Amino acid sequence: MLKIGQHQTIQQKLTPQQIQYLKLLQIPVIQLEQKIKEELEQNPFLEEGLEASPEEVIELELGENQEVGQAVKQELVEEYEETTQEILPKPDDEYTFEDFVKALEDEDSTSFNKNLNEENEEEIPWQPPAMESLEDKLLQQLAPIVNEKEYRIAEEILGNINDDGYLTRSVEEIAEDLRLGEKMEVMPEEVENVLKKIQRLDPPGIGARDLKECLLAQLEVGDFPEDKKTLAIRILNEAYDDFMKKKYDELMKRFNISEQKLGSVLQIIQRLNPKPGEGRAVIQEYIVPDFIVERVGDDFVITLNEKNVPMIRLNRTYYNLLKRQKKLPAEIKDEIKKQFARAKWFIASIYQRRETLLKIMRAIVELQREFFETGENLRPMIYKDVAEKAGVDISTVSRAVNQKYVQMDFGIYRLRDFFSEKVNTSNGTEVSIKELKEKIKQIIEQEDPRKPLTDDQIAEILRSQGFNIARRTVAKYRDQLGIPTARLRRRIE
After folding, report:
1. What is the band of 125 on the pLDDT scale with cuts at 50, 70, 90?
2. Angle between helices 226-238 and 211-221 (to 10 degrees)
3. 456 inside domain
4. CA angle, residues 162, 163, 166, in degrees to nearest 5
5. Helices in 200-306 by DSSP H: which ranges?
6. N or C terminus of the chain: which is more exposed, having fewer CB within 10 Å?
């Protein structure tokens, strides 16, 4: 039965100022630089220069009413500083990512709010510039050995290769695309012929339709001993399933070879590249740290790496010029007020971002002091620990550490790497899960590849070292490390 009634609900709603602050808080320093430059271009009330103090902001707003007494000015300054703090989520307000997205969706569709809606919290990946695409590299190699028609077929093939380097459409479909799209008479056999040439370029195996074809292409063009190359190709062509399942006894029996001979052939196959696409681009990798932590005596000096971030202030000249225009239409005056308010809030958001990040970084250094001193013994730490230490809410910590790095004496580290759950040891101490995963990795690296350790055996070794851990937990962490099961780790040397 359908019932109609009324009920009250309490909903959190983020203000545009809080949304702006949270957006700025979660982006790394290299994106902050870009964001400020964009804002300088869009808002005439902002200009580069030494940052404005609250007194300068109030003085600019007063304009011609400079006869107001000092007491009133001071009251206005205090009010401005107090309202500036409103952009910060209160410590007892646990804003979730869903609240954040909902607030963005509820905003008006002004240009200001469109800028705020551009990205989601976890979807702001910064990519360094691509120096040369893989397609360009391959086409340069292909140009001297194909005609004009084959070159165009090659372009179509390369446009259908995924990031791992595999072809995502059949040769029949590619031929059909060229016939329908460009009225080009192309047969599937012609596409297949060009594809074979592409697969033997550098990197070899590119454009393969499956792993078997990818490995075979690399073997055919690779510089390997002829007898071992021939046997490797036979194994892949005639016993691919046994090879993938590591049924080595079956392979030795089928090809009538010794264990030593099989081991030498498998070493060749295992050195081949299963993902020749490698991201499809040659990328210049570099990281810009957001924080710099330096040891000075017994203390740590923490600074934000903002040397390339423009300093901004309110544009006094532009504001005074507009204030002298007495006959401006009401709607223009309203727009001017909105732009001016937006400029003020943007400056305040930058300031509060800086304060919050430093507060959280100080808390991380205090909680992980031993690691910052020695580069070792990372202790268990979760977002709640830092939130309590810094006096902010957990969601603020999550956004603050998003995609940010810190430079210290021992290198550059991702902030998220400092967080880890804990595992209790038999003597009552606590160890971070990150450290436990590292121990599992070390145990596997030291195992006999001919007789790799099972998860039960790894758990037993860890228990003998004082870690209270079950086999299924070892299996979970091993999977997270990307390490296969014992059967698939087995190798013949």
Report:
1. very low
2. 160
3. yes
4. 45
5. 211-221, 226-238, 240-244, 248-255, 259-270
6. N
Residue 301's pLDDT is 94
Sequence-distant (≥ 6) Cβ neighbours of residue 307 within 8 angstroms: none
| Interatomic CA distance for residues 270 and 222, integer angstroms | 13
Work out the widest C-alpha separation in the chain, in whole angstroms: 103
pLDDT for the residue numbered 82 = 54
Specify the range with the lowest mean pLDDT, choosing from 309-323, 397-411, 462-476.
309-323
Rounded (5°) CA angle 389-391-394 = 85
- Establish whether the linkage from the previous residue to 203 is cis, with ω within 30° of 0: yes
Q: Give the Å distances, CA to CA, from 316 to 68, 277, 334, 346.
A: 19, 54, 18, 16
DSSP H or E run through 406: strand 405-408
Rounded distance between C-alpha atoms, residue 434 and residue 423, angstroms: 10
- Output phi, psi for 205, to 5 deg: 95, -10
Query: What is the spatial distance between Cα 70 and Cα 65, in angstroms, rounded to a whole number?
Result: 12
Read off the pLDDT of residues 442-488 as tens digits, 9 standing for 90 and up: 999 998 888 889 999 998 998 888 888 888 888 888 888 888 888 77
> Is 36 a member of any domain?
yes
Cβ atoms 380, 431 nearer than 8 A: yes
Q: Please state whether the predicted TM-score (pTM) of the whole model is above 0.70.
A: no
186-208 pLDDT, tens digit per residue, is 999 999 999 999 999 999 999 99
Domain harbouring 271, CATH code: 1.10.10.1330
371 is a domain residue = no
Contact between residue 423 and residue 467 where contact means Cβ atoms under 8 Å apart: yes
What's the domain range around 260?
Answer: 131-280
Check pLDDT > 80 for residue 90: no
As a whole number of angstroms, the distance between CA 394 and CA 302 comes to 21
Residue 297 tokens, joined: 């005596």
Distance (Å, whole) CA 264 – CA 70:
87
In angstroms, rounded to a whole number, what is the distance separating the alpha carbons of residues 243 and 248?
7
Say if 394 falls within a structural domain: no
Total residues found in the chain within this entry:
493
Question: Rounded to the nearest 5 degrees, what angle is found at the Cα of 263, between the Cα atoms of 260 and 267?
Answer: 145
